[in-house]
Amino acid sequence: MSDAAETLPRAADLRASRARLFWRQYRRNPAAVAGLVMVVLFVATALFAGLIAPFDPSRTNVGPAFSPPSLAHLMGTDDIGRDVFSAVVYGTRVAIMVGVFTALISTLIGTVVGAIAGYAGGWIDHLLMRVVELFLSIPRLFLALVIVALFGVSLVNIIAVIGLLSWPPVARIIRAEFLKLRHERFVDAARVMGAGHADIVFSEILPNAFHLILITASLQVPAAIIVEAGLSFMGLGDPNPRSLGLILSDAYPLLRRAWWTAVFPGMALSLIALSFNLTGDGLNDALNPRLRE
Length: 293
Known about the structure:
293 residues, globular, mainly alpha, MetI-like fold, 74% helix, 12 helices
């Protein structure tokens, strides 16, 4: 009983020590800390959009058309009197949803394919890598444009399409890591002790590749957001609510008369993508064992 009681504090101390080490490594990159702060702010905006936005983003005539930024409308209004700030807040929610769920889909598929290819090797590896190369040879935005046009414009379809088209780079990265780790001494020791393939993959290799999976997933988020914005800018975005790309598409003809209708959504889109990229760089600095001092 006493041994079990001692084990729990030791495990808690070990987790706390790892968290402190991670934060000490992460905060050495000021840009990554700034990126993490922005990510937290954008995620909070997405979660509490209904409380932050003063108006319904689709409601017209909430103010005079083409009203410039003011205390009543922080980012002005567009040509039919919609509040730009409210549209940007809800557009941020769409961007975060697309980025996070697409990253989950692409990282899951890429990790499974890359792990199988890297661990199995041989003809299985060769076959899976040819499939990866086939997907990589097709422009992602063009293929997404065709698929969304065929199956309909909805946020669920857009997330599914981008996620199903974004896994090949993840698969190549995870495959390379598995190819390296499967020949490490701790894996050989597990084989000698009679561990099966599933035990080796899930208990030995995957935990040691987790940092790479996390970093890769964080970098998939901004890539997915940019692809979705491109689709929406071309008119293939879900209008309920409008994404930042669709807001920019609507604002493009108004740019000379009402610059704020495009500048503020464009800044929000750029900052969201930048914040996740900076956070991904920070995760790489903090979790990559090759970069630790």
